[in-house]
TrEMBL record:
CDD domains: IGPS (cd00331). This is Indole-3-glycerol phosphate synthase. Residues 5-260 form the Indole-3-glycerol phosphate synthase domain. Pfam families: IGPS. SUPFAM superfamilies: Ribulose-phoshate binding barrel. InterPro entries: Aldolase_TIM, Indole-3-glycerol_P_synth, Indole-3-glycerol_P_synth_dom, Indole-3-GlycerolPSynthase_CS, RibuloseP-bd_barrel. Its EC number is 4.1.1.48. It is an enzyme of class 4 (lyase). The gene is trpC. It catalyses: 1-(2-carboxyphenylamino)-1-deoxy-D-ribulose 5-phosphate + H(+) = (1S,2R)-1-C-(indol-3-yl)glycerol 3-phosphate + CO2 + H2O. PANTHER family: INDOLE-3-GLYCEROL-PHOSPHATE SYNTHASE, TRYPTOPHAN BIOSYNTHESIS PROTEIN. It comes from Azospirillum thermophilum. Pathway: Amino-acid biosynthesis; L-tryptophan biosynthesis; L-tryptophan from chorismate: step 4/5. NCBIfam families: PRK00278.1-2, PRK00278.1-6, PRK00278.2-4. GO terms for biological process: L-tryptophan biosynthetic process.
Length: 262
């Protein structure tokens, strides 16, 4: 596992242990069952692509390990509305606090402001977080293959399926891609960001795209700054994109989202 990712996941395991103590799994499971029904994250992306549009997962991201503070005036419900207005298909909301200055309340507030499906963007290391995600209202969770063994990834995916959550399975190289294909989720993200060096290279998606089977939806993630980047990713078959920083830095997020998709 890469250094930064290893550090984030170690901290996450400690956090989950303390959360389990404060709020036992049975309580979280009950809250998950009582939550607003999932909105269909994969379905929304499929519908966008079937209609000849790009599927845009627009990320609500205040800060990151690679860039520090990205958006000082951070208002998740206003950002969610701006993304919706600009044509985003789905939202991604960072809930990790120590590294991304996110929090669970941001997801709840962003989802309440719009009718879009929402990805809880966090580092899943324990099935407890899956029930917790559903209890918060999340419609999709992230599995980072570099952070998990095959057995852990499968256990987390099964928990997500049991909670009717969609799953974005994220890979960075061929070995992770081959492991990801043993999972059931149709949504396959290729992250252009190397989580060891935090360097971004769009050639990552270009190298892996040809190895993604036709029954998976390829999502190009990270380092996408404008329509030319989307076209470059589309040239190798990507129709769905996860974009954070470049949109978060714009004053007019609606106009920037429209321009990206133009
Ligand atoms: O963004 C980071 O610095 C980062 C560091 C360590 C682990 C994950 C990280 N990012 C998570 C993401 O996948 C991105 O937030 C997402 O793909 C959007 O990327 P971008 O458009 O480049 O903000």
């Amino acid at each position: 596992m890469s250094d930064v990712l290893a550090r984030i996941c170690d901290d996450k395991r400690a956090l989950v242990a303390s959360r389990k103590f404060a709020r036992p799994p049975g309580e979280v499971e009950a809250a998950a069952r009582a939550a607003d029904p999932p909105r269909g994250f994969v379905r929304a992306l499929r519908e966008a692509v079937a209609a000849g549009r790009y599927g845009l997962i627009a990320e609500i991201k205040k800060a990151s390990p690679s860039k520090g503070l990205i958006r000082p005036d951070f208002d998740p419900p206003a950002l969610a509305r701006a993304y919706r207005e600009g044509g985003a298909t789905c939202l991604s909301v960072l809930t990790d606090e120590p590294y991304f200055q996110g929090c669970d309340a941001y997801l709840v507030a962003a989802r309440a402001a719009v009718d879009l499906p929402v990805l809880r963007k966090d580092f899943m290391v324990d099935p407890y977080q899956i029930a917790e995600s559903r209890a918060l209202g999340a419609d999709c969770i992230l599995i980072i293959m570099a952070a998990l063994s095959d057995a852990q990834a499968q256990e987390i995916e099964e928990a997500a399926i049991a909670h009717r959550l969609d799953v974005l399975v994220e890979v960075h190289n061929r070995e992770e891609l081959d492991r990801a294909l043993a999972l059931k989720s149709p949504l396959l993200g290729v992250n252009n960001r190397n989580l060891k060096t935090l360097a971004v290279d769009l050639a990552t998606t270009e190298a892996l795209a040809a190895h993604v089977p036709a029954d998976r939806m390829l999502v190009a993630e990270s380092g996408l700054y404008g329509p030319a980047d989307l076209s470059r990713m589309a040239a190798v078959g990507a129709r769905c994109f996860l974009v954070g920083e470049s949109l978060m830095r714009q004053e007019d997020v609606t106009a920037a989202t429209r321009a990206l998709l133009a």
